[in-house]
Amino acid sequence: MPKIKRKAVPEQTTAEVPPVLVTKADDVFLSRYPKMRKKLSALSKEEFTVFDKYLRTLPKNVLDKLEANPDIVEDFARRTLKDKDFAEALRKGDTGKIDELKIQIKNLSDNSVKLNIDLNNLKSANGSKGDVLIDRKKTSPSSADEAATFAKEVNLGNKAAKIKNDKLILNTMESEPTVDGIWKSTGQAVQLKTVGFNKLTTRINQSFSNVIGDSYWKGKGIDVHIECPDGKVQSVQRKWADDIKQRDSPTKNNNGSIKSVTVYCSDGIISLFIP
To answer: How far apart (Å, rounded) are the C-alpha atoms in residues 175 and 231?
Structure first.
């Protein structure tokens, strides 16, 4: 029987496949922005497919500014994918949003260092499905009281994260009493409190005094979230309105130190007016 000649099969090698596959059409467009194009390789194929369509709708002044600031492109892309208002403002040529994003990225970097948070070493906190994150090096609560406090922070953090459409990273430093965490997208500092109605305004005023008296956090626009299980929205609103009229109200020296106060009542959620 004659021997059958088999074609040699070339040896297969494992090559790293880049996450973004750029077509010729894409290449023509993105070749005008080489710095930005290079940064887009960090996106997944799914993210790139959606973002690429959006990118082509942006005016030239926005594209030029992104090319001039390539280090923010990855954050920019992911923000546009989740924040419709942000994306639409840029489609209308609002380059100020890029400046805001640059500030937020710096805030996230600076504040995470201040709180000893490693942004590359995060995990979901116990009691959260990914809305509240902690640094993996954060130690477990050492007492029942600490465990109860941590559980309350996570529970309130889950609620706040849904309202903000963001992820909350809890503080890893027990010696940093002024803030309890930061928002992952913006780096904005967050305070979390659980308090009864009778002590509500006292605790809010303490928040103002603590932030105003802290040389680092003063003027940084802290986002305060308070769980008040026995409070009613109208009662909380009236009590706060009366309190801020007092001559010694710490809100009079706020100067942007606390940006917002959100109270979670038994019958709803209210954002308090800050004079």
So the answer is: 30
User: 37-45 long-range CB contacts below 8 Å, 24 or more apart?
Assistant: 38/70, 39/70, 39/71, 39/73, 39/74, 40/73, 40/74, 40/77, 42/74, 43/19, 43/74, 43/77, 43/78, 44/19, 45/19, 45/20, 45/21
- CA–CA gap between residue 219 and residue 254 (Å, rounded): 8
Q: Provide the sign of the torsion angle of the four alpha carbons 242, 246, 248, 250, taken in this order.
A: positive
Reduce the DSSP state of residue 168 to 3 states and report it. strand
Could you give the CA distance from residue 216 to residue 2 in angstroms, rounded to a whole number? 86
Q: Positive or negative, the Cα torsion across 52, 57, 59, 62? A: negative
**End-to-end CA distance of the chain, in Å?**
98
The answer, as to whether pTM is greater than 0.85, is: no
- From CA 182, how far away is CA 225, in angstroms rounded? 12
The structure tokens 């030029």 sit at 64
**Per-residue model confidence as pLDDT tens digits over 216-246:** 999 999 999 999 999 999 999 999 999 999 9
User: Do 250 and 224 touch, CB atoms closer than 8 A?
Assistant: no
Q: Tell me: the pLDDT tens digits for 170-187?
A: 987 666 678 999 999 999
Q: Looking at 134-143, 164-173, 229-238, 253-262, which range is the least confident one?
A: 134-143
Walk me through the domains of the chain, giving residue ranges and CATH numbers: 24-94 (no CATH), 121-271 (3.40.1350)
Distance between CA atoms of 19 and 24, rounded to whole angstroms? 16
